[in-house]
Amino acid sequence: MSIEAYFQEIQNSIATCFVVQSSNIRYDKRTLHTGFIQGELYFADDSVLHIREFVDTENGVDCLMYVYHYMDNQNNLVFRYDNTGHHKGLPNYPHHKHVGSQNNVISTNAPNLAEVLVEIEQSLE
User: How confident is the model over 33-74, as pLDDT tens digits?
Assistant: First the structure.
């Protein structure tokens, strides 16, 4: 898959999420198969999702770096998924999720943006 096709998948995920009110996403093509995505999605309840991904699409979608940082309308952390190389004791290292605070960390599989958006949609229903 080309990086442009992946960028289009991201745009489609955002466009079909009924709780997204606006977005500010930047797409940076680095090579035919690598790219960087960064920006924010703003939701109906004034919460915000900060997104960063560095992706290689040459052999499927390999998200080399990701952060999905979701804040409520009072600027409090709701959750953050990331693969930063800390919390080495977790079973799915380096993938993990912060829930409600920086210190509450659980092991998780690496989500994609569509899955994160479904989680947010369900929390806002």
Answer: 999 999 999 999 999 999 999 999 999 999 999 999 999 999
Residues 6+ apart with CB under 8 A from 57: 1, 2, 3, 5, 6, 33, 34, 35
Rounded to two decimals, the pTM is 0.94
Dmax over CA atoms of the chain, in Å, equals 40
Selection from 65, 62, 52, 68 nearest residue 1 by Cα? 62
What's the number of domains the chain is made of? 1
Domain range enclosing 61: 3-124
Contact 77, 102 (CB under 8 A): yes
Please tell me the distance from the alpha carbon of residue 36 to that of residue 15, in angstroms, as a whole number: 19
